[in-house]
């Protein structure tokens, strides 16, 4: 277990961490008070909801585009090849009735994992499909969105619940694997991502809607 | 000696030290240095520098801080600013760094006042950066997923230093790399932005004198987005002719940002945009139906968008897209009017029906044809005539009467409502009143007062008045409830004739016309004036009206300007209807310059100058002078004639003294050989060259001269005085002598004519046979124009003849008109001369006759005037011969009749041995 000093893990650090499944504890703050309190405004809750909505709205297109760009057999046998059963994906066992704090923590773990995994997938696709501009653009935007989402969640956890530290587990690193394995791992993560982000959006909607 | 070598060594050491590199890396160590090294100073602050000498130099070269001098560039710093801290350190202080320049050098005055540089530093003076102000950012959408954020700010004052600006931004838990501007200092563009995260943005300015930060801007980038305008805009026609549907695609998904829209549209060709109410498009959408459009009209659409909540910026307008609504039935019938030509026959009209094509918004489609129906209202039995016309006019031949014309325009959807025009037999209804015009910018308003009766419509005709072409009529229909319309397409400075007809339900009113200008200008040329008549004190000027093209407005008046060369100009204003004007009170015999000016409401134009000169005398003045003078002259002449008539006897006595008839003299009766009666006719036949009415030939002995009394000589003397020019020059016989001067003869002949005409002068020729008794007598002849006294003398001679009658009878010859047989011209002259010597009267007469005919021989005549008597005789003989030979020629050359021949004879000079007049 490694100690991650900041809630948003730098991309380079993610690469290093994902050599194998790892767990982390996100230290949101050190000491009393939330960092950059001036930025943690009331609109962060709505911003978080909008970010999840954007991810939810674009996840399926991203997955479809990913499959399309990987070619055969992924485009025709995605159900078989992209079955996420064999990979690690953070459990998202919250629902609309869950406590808001619990939801926030679960989402933090989820999007910290996704941020790292999307970073790895983007890196692999830049290597495998450098000409797939739209796919790369979407992967970049999704990664950036998860990064912003983690920042907002950190703000909310700190400001609303004084949570300064969250244990996070990351997935396996694809570095060193074959191209097929890289494609397959990305396919499995994105498929699971499509499933979970929809659930997260539904769960998050009542909790983050303006009251 | 030692000191001298010491200073030399010292100088050499200094040079080595100064010229050598730094001590640390060079061969020789410097003698000193300045602190601070290369300072950057704030402008206006104070500054102190220290020059520190090395101990080694002190020991070797006897150099101390007291010898240090400071310089800025090459300018010596005043010593008041120095301070010797100790023997190795000297300081210099500047209270205001603005006086500083680079380099600042520390120098030393060695022995002999040799100035050596110890050290120098560069000084940089500037300002600390100001706080950047007015930071603002905008996120531009570059593509569907790409956004860039550009922030701009005011960098503040110029710092004179290298100042770096950095745009910084961060999230609550992340700090991003700074954005460093390129080539500018007031803006920077960030490529990596993320929506829905509060981002703190600020600008940091840094230079050697400090650092300054702008106010921090916290913003969610989604709230400052300027999106791309909607793409793939398309327009589709709906089922209704007044609706078009607009569709488009958004660049931003609703998940990221919901949008609101602005839609604008305009009719193609129009410049004014109409806009769909913003509240109708304030929600996210990708299509919109626009209603209330005109049928069969092309519209241009454009759309833009922005974040639904109004945060951020409007996108640019999308590219224009056009769409056309579908057709509908024409909304109204075409305006129709007529022009009736009755020039052929009043009872047979040529009716030109004209109508205007419907405007696009009235036609609502493509007009396929016009359906024209003509019904004769004066004859119910007449069939209705129908015509299908594709143009906008139709000509009919109709009899005089009342007709109802109906016109329908038809497009692919259906017909228009009918337009009805009633053509009455006469336009006897009430006209409009108070017709007037008023220019309104580029339109001409025509107003009128409606007649008392109800008017259906008004027809307004107008045409451009031209002097060179016919008036091309344009027309327009106004509804009956209006009392004025704006005429479009009216050109400025042109004259228009505007006529308004009221149309009633049962007829048509007579037209009222007015001329109008949209805008007036001064005439393009002035009138050309000229005189029609010029008198002594007045001049009638005339000119032609300017053509309507030249007028450029209503001619309000003409102005005549006239002046003399040195006089003041006189101005006369003339009514514009006139073409003639009389200038009065002019000065006689004076040159006037006149020009003419035509004026409109907007200015005047002067024509060319025209000059004229008034007459010296007025009309009738000359007649008033001449006629009385002539009358007076005639009166005087008449009086003179009357006077002469009354005094004719006295005058006659003085002018024409009574001349006795020589034929009735006693001498004639006495001479046995003289015929009792002169046969005038025979004489004329014998001497056609000349006639001698009265010729007396007297031969007198020279010795008998004494026998004449003075009284006898008096008349001759009188003649001599009158013929003073002949005296001493001529023999006096002139025209009667072959030797006489022709000129003299001419002169004489002038008088001779008068003399002859009066028939009062009796010419006498005297032939003197001069010579002594024992000598051959020389025949000399002479002539005298002696008048009456001759006869008196003759009478007196008769009286005196008592004492010497024998001599007189032998030597005197008096002969009148010798007989025919005595004028034998075939006889040689010489013989005749001899015969003369034998007292042949006829020969003498003939001789004289010959001499007259030969008087053209002027040189002989001249010579004769100076010759002696003998010479004269020889000349006579010679001339006589010549005269005989040239006679035919003479007759030819001088075809004068005898009466025309000069018959005067100069009186002869009385010479010794010559004759003596009797």
From TrEMBL, chain A:
Instruction: Specify where it is mainly localized.
Output: secreted
Recorded GO molecular functions are: cytokine activity; growth factor activity; leukemia inhibitory factor receptor binding
- SMART domains per UniProt: LIF_OSM
Q: Which keywords describe this protein according to UniProt?
A: Cytokine, Secreted, Signal
Record-linked Pfam families: LIF_OSM (PF01291)
Cellular-component GO terms for this entry = cytosol; extracellular space
Q: Name one GO biological process term.
A: negative regulation of ERK1 and ERK2 cascade
UniProt cross-references to Gene3D superfamilies, sorted A to Z:
1.20.1250.10
Which InterPro entries would you find in this protein's record?
A: 4_helix_cytokine-like_core, Leukemia_IF, Leukemia_IF/oncostatin
Q: Which residues form the signal peptide?
A: 1-24
The compartments listed are: Secreted
**What is this protein's function per UniProt?**
LIF has the capacity to induce terminal differentiation in leukemic cells. Its activities include the induction of hematopoietic differentiation in normal and myeloid leukemia cells, the induction of neuronal cell differentiation, and the stimulation of acute-phase protein synthesis in hepatocytes.
Protein's recorded name: Leukemia inhibitory factor
Organism per entry: Serinus canaria
List the top taxonomic levels of the source: Eukaryota, Metazoa, Chordata, Craniata, Vertebrata
Gene that encodes the chain: LIF
From TrEMBL, chain B:
* TM regions (residue ranges): 625-645
Arranged from A to Z, the UniProt key words for this protein are: Cell membrane, Disulfide bond, Glycoprotein, Immunoglobulin domain, Membrane, Phosphoprotein, Receptor, Repeat, Signal, Transmembrane, Transmembrane helix
Signal sequence segment: 1-25
PROSITE patterns the record matches: FN3 (PS50853), HEMATOPO_REC_L_F2 (PS01353)
Kindly indicate whether the keyword Membrane belongs to this entry: yes
Q: Which GO terms describe its cellular component?
A: ciliary neurotrophic factor receptor complex; dendrite; external side of plasma membrane; interleukin-6 receptor complex; membrane raft; neuronal cell body; oncostatin-M receptor complex
**Polar residues composition-biased segments:** 778-790
Sequence segments annotated as region (Disordered): 720-762, 778-808, 884-903
Could you tell me which Pfam families the record lists for this protein?
fn3, Lep_receptor_Ig
InterPro entries in the record, alphabetically? FN3_dom (IPR003961), FN3_sf (IPR036116), Hematopoietin_rcpt_Gp130_CS (IPR003529), Ig-like_fold (IPR013783), IgC2-like_lig-bd (IPR010457), Type1_Cytokine_Rcpt_Type2 (IPR052672)
SUPFAM superfamilies annotated for this entry?
Fibronectin type III (SSF49265)
Annotated ranges, domain Fibronectin type-III? 131-228, 229-325, 333-431, 523-617
Family label? Belongs to the type I cytokine receptor family. Type 2 subfamily.
Q: From which source organism is this entry?
A: Serinus canaria (Island canary)
Q: Does the keyword ATP-binding apply?
A: no
What is this protein's name?
Answer: Interleukin-6 receptor subunit beta
Q: Where is the composition biased (Basic and acidic residues)?
A: 793-802
The record's listing under PANTHER family reads: INTERLEUKIN-27 RECEPTOR SUBUNIT ALPHA
Highest taxon of source: Eukaryota
Q: Which GO terms describe its molecular function?
A: ciliary neurotrophic factor receptor binding; coreceptor activity; identical protein binding; interleukin-11 binding; interleukin-11 receptor activity; interleukin-27 receptor activity; interleukin-6 binding; interleukin-6 receptor activity
Query: What's the protein's topology in the membrane?
Result: Single-pass type I membrane protein
Where does this protein reside within or beyond the cell? Cell membrane
């Amino acid at each position: 277990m490694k100690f991650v000093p900041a809630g948003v893990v730098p991309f380079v650090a993610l690469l290093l961490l994902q050599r194998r499944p790892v767990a982390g504890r996100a230290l949101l703050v050190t000491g009393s008070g939330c960092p950059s309190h001036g930025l943690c405004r009331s609109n962060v809750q709505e911003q978080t909801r909008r970010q999840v909505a954007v991810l939810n709205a674009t996840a399926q297109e991203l997955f479809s585009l990913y499959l399309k760009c990987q070619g055969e057999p992924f485009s025709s046998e995605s159900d078989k090849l992209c079955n996420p059963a064999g990979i690690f994906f953070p459990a998202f066992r919250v629902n609309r009735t869950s406590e808001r704090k619990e939801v926030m923590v679960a989402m933090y773990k989820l999007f910290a994992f996704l941020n790292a995994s999307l970073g790895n997938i983007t890196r692999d696709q830049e290597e495998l499909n450098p000409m797939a501009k739209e796919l790369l653009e979407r992967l970049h935007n999704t990664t950036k969105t998860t990064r912003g989402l983690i920042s907002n969640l950190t703000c909310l956890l700190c400001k609303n619940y004084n949570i300064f530290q969250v244990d996070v587990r990351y997935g396996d690193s694809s570095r060193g694997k074959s191209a097929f394995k890289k494609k397959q791992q990305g396919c499995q993560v994105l498929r699971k991502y499509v499933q979970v982000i929809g659930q997260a959006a539904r769960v998050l909607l009542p909790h983050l809607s303006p009251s | 000696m030692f000191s001298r070598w010491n200073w030399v060594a010292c100088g050499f050491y200094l040079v080595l030290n100064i010229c050598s590199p730094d001590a640390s890396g060079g061969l020789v160590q410097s003698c000193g240095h300045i602190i601070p090294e290369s300072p950057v100073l704030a402008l206006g602050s104070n500054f102190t520098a220290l020059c520190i000498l090395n101990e080694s130099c002190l020991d070797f070269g006897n150099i101390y801080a007291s010898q240090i001098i400071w310089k800025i560039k090459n300018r010596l710093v005043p010593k008041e600013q120095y301070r010797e801290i100790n023997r190795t350190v000297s300081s210099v202080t500047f209270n205001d760094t603005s006086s500083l320049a680079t380099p600042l050098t520390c120098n030393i005055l060695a022995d002999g006042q040799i100035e050596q540089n110890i050290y120098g530093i560069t000084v940089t003076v500037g300002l600390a950066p100001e706080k950047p102000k007015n930071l603002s950012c905008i996120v531009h959408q570059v593509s569907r997923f790409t956004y860039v954020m550009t922030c701009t700010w005011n960098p503040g004052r110029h710092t004179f230093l290298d100042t770096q600006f950095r745009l910084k931004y961060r999230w609550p838990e992340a700090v991003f790399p700074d954005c460093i501007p390129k080539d500018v200092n007031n803006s920077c563009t960030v490529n990596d932005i993320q929506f829905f995260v509060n981002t703190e943005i600020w600008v940091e300015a840094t230079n050697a004198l400090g650092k300054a930060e702008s106010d921090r801007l916290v913003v969610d980038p989604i709230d400052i987005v300027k999106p791309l305008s909607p793409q793939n805009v398309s327009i589709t026609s709906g089922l209704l002719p007044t609706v078009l549907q607009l569709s488009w695609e958004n660049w931003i998904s609703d998940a990221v940002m919901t949008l609101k829209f602005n839609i604008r549209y305009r009719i193609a060709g129009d410049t004014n945009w109409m806009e769909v109410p913003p509240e109708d498009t304030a929600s996210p959408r990708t299509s919109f139906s626009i209603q209330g459009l005109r049928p069969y009209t092309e519209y241009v659409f454009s759309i833009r968008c922005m974040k639904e909540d109004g945060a951020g910026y409007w996108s640019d307008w999308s590219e224009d897209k056009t769409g056309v609504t579908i057709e509908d039935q024409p909304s109204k019938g075409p305006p129709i009017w007529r022009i009736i030509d009755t020039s052929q026959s009043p009872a047979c009209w040529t009716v030109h029906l004209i109508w205007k094509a419907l405007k696009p918004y009235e036609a609502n489609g493509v007009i396929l044809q016009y359906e024209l129906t003509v019904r004769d209202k004066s004859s119910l039995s007449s069939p209705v005539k129908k015509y299908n016309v594709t143009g906008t006019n139709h000509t009919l031949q109709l009899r005089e009467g009342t007709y109802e014309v109906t016109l329908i325009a038809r497009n692919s959807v259906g017909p228009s409502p009918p337009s009805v025009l009633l053509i009455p037999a006469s336009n006897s209804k009430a006209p409009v009143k108070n017709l007037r015009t008023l220019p309104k910018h580029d339109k001409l308003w025509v107003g009128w007062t409606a007649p008392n009766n109800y008017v259906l419509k008004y027809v307004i005709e107008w045409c451009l008045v031209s002097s060179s072409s016919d008036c091309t009529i344009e027309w327009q229909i106004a509804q009956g409830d209006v009392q004025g319309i704006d005429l479009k397409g009216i050109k400025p400075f042109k004259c228009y004739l505007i006529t308004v007809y009221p149309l009633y339900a049962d007829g048509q009113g007579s037209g009222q016309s007015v001329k109008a200008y949209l805008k007036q200008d001064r005439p393009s040329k002035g009138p050309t004036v000229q005189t029609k008549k010029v008198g002594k004190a007045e001049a009638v000027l005339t000119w032609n009206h300017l053509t309507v093209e030249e007028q450029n407005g209503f001619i309000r008046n003409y102005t005549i300007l006239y002046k003399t060369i040195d006089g003041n100009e006189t101005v006369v204003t003339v009514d514009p209807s006139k073409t003639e004007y009389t200038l009065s009170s002019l000065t006689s015999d004076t040159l006037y310059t006149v020009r003419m000016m035509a004026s409109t409401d907007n200015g005047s134009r002067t024509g060319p100058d025209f000059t004229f000169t008034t007459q010296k005398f007025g009309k009738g003045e000359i007649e008033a002078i001449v006629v009385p003078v002539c009358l007076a002259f005639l009166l005087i002449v008449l009086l003179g004639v009357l006077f002469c008539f009354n005094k004719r006897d006295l005058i006659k006595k003085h002018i024409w003294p009574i001349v006795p008839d020589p034929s009735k003299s006693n001498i004639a009766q006495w001479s046995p050989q003289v015929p009792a009666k002169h046969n005038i006719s025979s004489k004329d036949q014998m001497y056609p060259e000349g006639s001698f009415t009265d010729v007396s030939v007297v031969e007198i002995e020279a010795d008998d001269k004494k026998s004449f009394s003075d009284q006898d000589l008096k008349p001759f003397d009188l003649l001599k005085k009158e013929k003073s020019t002949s005296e001493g020059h001529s023999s006096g016989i002139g025209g009667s002598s072959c030797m006489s001067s022709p000129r003299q003869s001419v002169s004489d002949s002038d008088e001779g004519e008068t003399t002859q005409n009066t028939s009062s002068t009796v010419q006498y020729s005297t032939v003197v046979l001069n010579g002594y008794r024992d000598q051959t007598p020389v025949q000399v002849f002479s002539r005298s124009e002696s008048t009456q006294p001759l006869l008196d003398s003759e009478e007196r001679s008769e009286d005196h003849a008592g004492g010497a009658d024998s001599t007189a009878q032998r030597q005197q010859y008096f002969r009148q008109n010798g007989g025919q047989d005595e004028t034998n011209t075939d006889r040689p002259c010489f013989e005749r001369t001899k015969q003369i010597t034998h007292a042949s009267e006829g020969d003498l007469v003939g001789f004289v006759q010959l001499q007259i005919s030969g008087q053209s021989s002027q040189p002989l005549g001249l010579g004769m005037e100076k010759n002696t008597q003998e010479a004269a005789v020889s000349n006579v003989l010679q001339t006589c011969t010549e005269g005989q030979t040239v006679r035919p020629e003479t007759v030819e050359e001088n075809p004068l009749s005898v009466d025309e021949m000069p018959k005067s004879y100069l009186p002869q000079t009385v010479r010794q041995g010559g004759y003596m007049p009797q």
